Amino acid sequence: MRETSAGNGAYDVAVIGYGPTGVSAANLLGATGLRVVVLERDAEVYSRARAISTDEEVLRVWQRVDLAERLKRDMLTDRPVDFVDARGRSFIRACPTPRGHGHPPQMFLYQPALEAVLREGVARYPNVEVRLGHECVELRQDTEGVGLTATAGDAVHRLRAAYVIAADGGSSPTRARLDVGYEGRTYEDRWVVVDTEMLRPWPGHDRLRFRCDPARPAVDCPTPLGHHRWEFPVLPGDDESYLTTDEAVLALVTRYGIDPDSIRILRSTVYSHHVRFAARFRAGRVFLAGDAAHAMPPWIGQGMAAGVRDVANLCWKLAAVLRGELPETVLDSYEAERKPHVKEITRRAVFVGRIITERRPALTRLRDSVLPVLNRVPGFAQWLQDSHWIPVARYSAGLQARPRTRASGRQIPQPGVTAPDGTRVRLDDALGGRWLLLHARTATPQPLWNVPSLTVTPAGSSPARGTLVDSDGVLLPWLAGRRAATLALRPDAYVYAAARRGALLPPPPPGFAPAQHPTATSGG
Fold first, then answer.
1. Which strand (E) or helix (H) includes residue 15?
2. What confidence score (pLDDT) does residue 364 get?
């Protein structure tokens, strides 16, 4: 075997795995200027379309690396969601409503196309080295970094990185090497997932239907770029190998009035649903992310989204530590912030799954008769969605100042604002992914904080240096509703600290030494 070696300290971060979580991490880290290496066992984008939707918060993450608008061109937006009974009658109908992140609340996607665009994004960064066809087979940690051994054919490569992000999937070999448990359960039901090419549209092809038929539930989902997805459970007595054949799939699909000539079956695969969490998300200098850290059922489309949120939380912290802006202990806040939110999302996914897959006759009759009545009550569908769909992340532990306020641990909404030069932009583009003070209407000096500062002025105000005009009328009411006149925002737009008008903010985190931005207004 041929053996090569990258010198000590060659990389700041190594990313193991190049699915949606790993490629998002590579983009986020690439944008910081860190030296990054990606190790991916497979030579090509995985061809199976696993994730089928995402949400506005995830697009806000991809916006940070200037890919959101390109990605949205290949997505379907503003599609209603129907829960229908065995006869196709809707008993819950909902249209996801925006939560203020500046993008459509729900978007359907075709995962191979999405990953291809994200990989094109990584190619913009000369500081990111992508090694496809390289399998990481060994990790060795010490006080200065991590040694990695990767194989590619008959070649062995030895590398070093200060930190490692393991995004190598639910069966994560890295997690196993670290001897980190993966606790939870695997559901007995297995599901056939069918990806098709839509040759001719049919009535209702463009809406998501959860077909809650106790005889055989199904997921009937539009996906972009001329595709459509179905999912069916493998029932007791089914021949699993037969159920994945074109003949069996067409028999299932035609139950819903779909002409077999309207689709071309691309692939059908059997999956199991899991509810699992890694015992810890961090092991020394190695961090688990995405499915390597957690697995959930697919019912609310949050598996991929949770992985993207993981690396959005982690990558800016790694950059801050490597630059000496924050102490290494801040990395413990990754698990403290992400794990509770992932657990809550998973709990809600399980709840929605129970509605869809319930097969006991008495309960399905009750569901099918009561929920349509409640669905006619104004606001019920929205309440159900808000209460049991995707929870808003609010970090109650981790990297927030004490004492906590109504704004602490929340991500500030992202409306359109008018920048100092008079251009209209999304808020995050004006904030610039940095530590920053945001003042409502007038600035209160904050001598403890040596970071850039911006003041939000009301809609209709004239643009001026050091200000953001609240063009959509969102920011000032949001601040007032949380009794905050000054915010200390983290680079991910979460509130580290807040203060009322005329009051001082709590001090920055211990060891805080932010990089200076010469173009910013500083000091507060």
1. strand 11-16
2. 83
- State the Cα–Cα distance between residues 242 and 342, nearest whole angstrom: 35
User: Cα–Cα distance between 313 and 311 in angstroms, integer?
Assistant: 5
Task: Identify the pLDDT of residue 8.
Answer: 46
Three-state secondary structure call for residue 244: coil
Pairing mode, strands 286-288 and 453-457: unpaired
Residue 502's alpha-carbon distances to 70, 403, 483, in angstroms, are 43, 17, 12
pTM score, two decimals? 0.94
Specify whether the CB–CB gap between 469 and 459 falls below 8 A.
Answer: yes
d(CA 323, CA 435): 14
Angle at CA of residue 511, ends 509 and 516, nearest 5°: 90
For residue 371, is it left (φ>0), alpha (ψ between -120 and 50) or beta? alpha
First to last CA, the chain: 59
Cβ-contact 441, 129 below 8 angstroms? no
Q: Which two tokens stand for residue 180?
A: 């980190």
481 with 416: CB under 8 angstroms? no
Q: Spell out the residues 6+ positions from residue 519 whose beta carbon is closer than 8 angstroms to its own.
A: none
Angle, vertex CA 18, rays to CA 14 and CA 20, nearest 5:
120
Q: What is the mean pLDDT of each run of 10 residues along the chain (524 residues)?
A: 56 98 98 98 78 94 98 92 87 82 94 96 98 97 96 96 97 97 87 94 90 92 94 93 95 92 94 94 98 93 95 98 97 98 93 86 81 72 62 90 95 97 97 97 95 97 97 98 98 98 96 69 36
β strands within 63-217, DSSP E: 76-77, 81-84, 90-94, 106-108, 128-132, 135-141, 146-152, 155-166, 182-198, 208-211
Tokens of 254: 């035609």
Instruction: Report the greatest alpha carbon distance in the chain.
Output: 72
Residue-by-residue DSSP string for 324-382: TSS-GGGGGHHHHHHHHHHHHHHHHHHHHHHHHH---HHHHHHHHHHHHHHHTSTTHHH
Rounded Cα gap, residues 448 and 18, in angstroms: 41
To 10 degrees, the CA torsion angle through 9, 173, 314, 391? 180
Phi, psi of 140 (to 5 degrees): -135, 120
Edge-first strand order for the sheet with 424-426 is 424-426, 416-418, 467-469, 453-457, 436-440, 486-489, 495-499
pLDDT for residue 389: 67
Residues in the chain, overall count: 524
Q: Could you give the CA distance from residue 415 to residue 425 in angstroms, rounded to a whole number?
A: 9
Q: Could you write out the DSSP letters of every residue in 422-475?
A: S-EEEHHHHH-SS-EEEEESSPPP-TT--SBEEEEE-TTPPP-TTEEE-TTS-H
Peptide bond into 403 cis (omega under 30): yes
What DSSP designation does 144 have? Answer: S
Give the C-alpha separation, 431 to 436, whole Å: 7
